[in-house]
Amino acid sequence: MSTGTTTVSNTKSSFSTKQIATIGICAAISFVLMFVKFPVAYLGFLELEISDLPAIFMTLVYGPVAGVFVELIKNILHLATTSTGMSGELANFAVSLGYVIPLGLIFHRGNGKRKLITGLGAGIIGMVIMGIIINYFVTVPLYLTLFGKDAVLGMVQAVIPSIHNVAGIVILGITPFNIFKGLVISILAYYLYKVLKDRIA
Predict the structure, then answer these.
(1) Backbone φ and ψ of 85, nearest 5°
(2) Which carries the bigger pLDDT value, residue 38 or residue 117?
(3) What's the burial of 111, exposed, middle or buried (CB within 10 Å: 0-12/13-18/19+)?
(4) Residues 6 or more apart from 96 whose CB is under 8 A from it?
(5) pTM of the entire structure?
(6) Does residue 58 register a pLDDT over 60?
(7) 25 alpha carbon, distance to own chain's centre
């Protein structure tokens, strides 16, 4: 007999209809947040945005599969507005997975403040490592092709004069920014989860 529950594999449990609806809502919020950027550009092209926050929250509440779904839906929706030929969305998706998967695997092995903080820390590390790989092989080469090597290096060197190549842009420029972004979204996720976890789960 049907129980009204849709079974989708998850590390915690199967997703109920309510959970699927909540994941969909969070994905829509995440998509909207992609267009909300803080008015400070670093290196001339990096802007702080918090569109990963709903995925992180869903990861904490329902597990890493939920976070992956939020990131996937967000980037599929963003394809309608893309100017990067899907490369930007694939890069965003990969870097986001570097955060939500370690977070979910660690956090849902136990409970308590220590697991939460450890999971968020692992998420930052995973995001930074994935960011180095994706930015070196995909994002920065794409920017160099679209806007020209001299133009991109000119913007970057205006902030960090010692940067002269792709490796320098990624390691000295983008990586510190990603660490900062990871800290910001982790702090926000920590308090968001503490406030809303009992209302959503």
Answers:
(1) 60, 35
(2) 117
(3) exposed
(4) 52, 55, 71, 127
(5) 0.86
(6) yes
(7) 17
